[in-house]
């Protein structure tokens, strides 16, 4: 469930655009006004505001935001205003293939937690914006075991029906167990099963694994807890089967880190606020014995904090 | 250019459906009537006929055809009537992953010669019909080097713009040449370049290869002419850059073969009649010094021959 709160009476896109323009011009910038508007409009409403703003003031809303805002607050507002989720994901994925901002986790996360059709839309948006395919950029900028896992992961168009073949689940659970027992973590059969099977089928396979061999697969994949490839493999499995648990952990790590990982915090809040942030908040509180909004308040400040809290549905609205 | 000939005045779908019904009932089957209708309607017209037939006679057109026709003529009419190209490709691809009819060439051909969006539609049709993804079936039913090439080939959503990065083309041509010189034909870099780059980019890379190293890449890939993987790799490159040459060769081999390969002949005629069969016919005549329709006439007979000739636009209409 989403945490985004939209008012019962939404102002027209031209009223919103006008208010935003007011927030930008004159003495200083009115950050509270920006938050009160943008943090309470859904993706299609933001799209309309953006279009109206551009046609009324002859300037892209993102350009105005870029001029007026800075640092973490700028990044969260820009990502939020960037357009439909597919546009934002395409932007994040592209950043993740660039040398200075390369990030296998972001690629894995986008490929594994979006629906098949949403991932396809990300690929279309990626091509329209960058004039290359997501697949070629991921393949070009990764190497070794990471490439072996990530390229099929971003390429595949997974089936999403609920049909499950239990015989296959049993035999593939056995196959996974054999390979893992041999420490063949990058074996092509392991990668084939994880990157091509439907989430329902994979879930059945992993249940068989757990029942037939006594451990959850991710426990067996912890032989070397600091191995970066194994970490990514475990997270992929988590994203495909329990995405909210994965996101809870990313938030936990981002907040607990000395100095806070604002990029991760921003990314999860912005990409999940309209999807399953309610569920992630529940898991967060259960796992950390502190509500997410309180943890965020303790760790962040100013307009950045306000924007985060608004997006996770903090307080009355 | 297509070879399909559609009359200037097309009868209504219900007239066509009625005529087809007449061709099925009573003494024997009127094959000429079936050909005169179906072989002269385009994909969307056939779809309407099919829908009208089903709603009027309470039976799927394919079921009626299956009852009335047999052998090679049955297969070509069924494949032609099967529905939009994506449905037919999904059917052919599924056959190609089955044990008794497995065929890596068909998978490669569908993945490499369809547009990115058409390939995506094949994947959607595949999932709707078979309740699994094309990717998982291909990955499950292939192995070794064939899997290494085919899985990314069917998975990728290639960029289709004309933009070409010449610096990249030069460096990737060099990389391909190095790997081929080492006989590392299944090297992951070779496969990455072939399976992820846009057709325009790949073409630029292969031109550089030819200019900088003195041979066309497919010549350098002929070190062991009978190696099945190398054959498939060469054909993939041909499909991605000169599809009509590839199809000419499939037709040539199918016709020259002792006993004729009707499956290949049918497949190429049915899948290209509405796309580029005119061009393939030109290439065929140039390469074989005999027109394709004459070669087909010499090698086939009866209703099957008539249907093939109608689809390649033989004679006046």
From TrEMBL, chains A, B:
InterPro entries: Annexin (IPR001464), Annexin_repeat (IPR018502), Annexin_repeat_CS (IPR018252), Annexin_sf (IPR037104), AnnexinD_plant (IPR009118). Keywords: Annexin, Calcium, Calcium/phospholipid-binding, Metal-binding, Repeat. GO terms for molecular function: calcium ion binding; calcium-dependent phospholipid binding; phosphatidylserine binding. Ca(2+) 2 binds at residues 255, 257. One of its GO terms (cellular component) is cytoplasm. Pfam families: Annexin. Ca(2+) 1 binds at residues 24, 26, 28, 68, 259, 299-300, 305. SMART domains: ANX. One of its GO terms (biological process) is response to water deprivation. A pair of annexin repeats may form one binding site for calcium and phospholipid. Belongs to the annexin family. This is Annexin. It comes from Acacia crassicarpa (northern wattle).
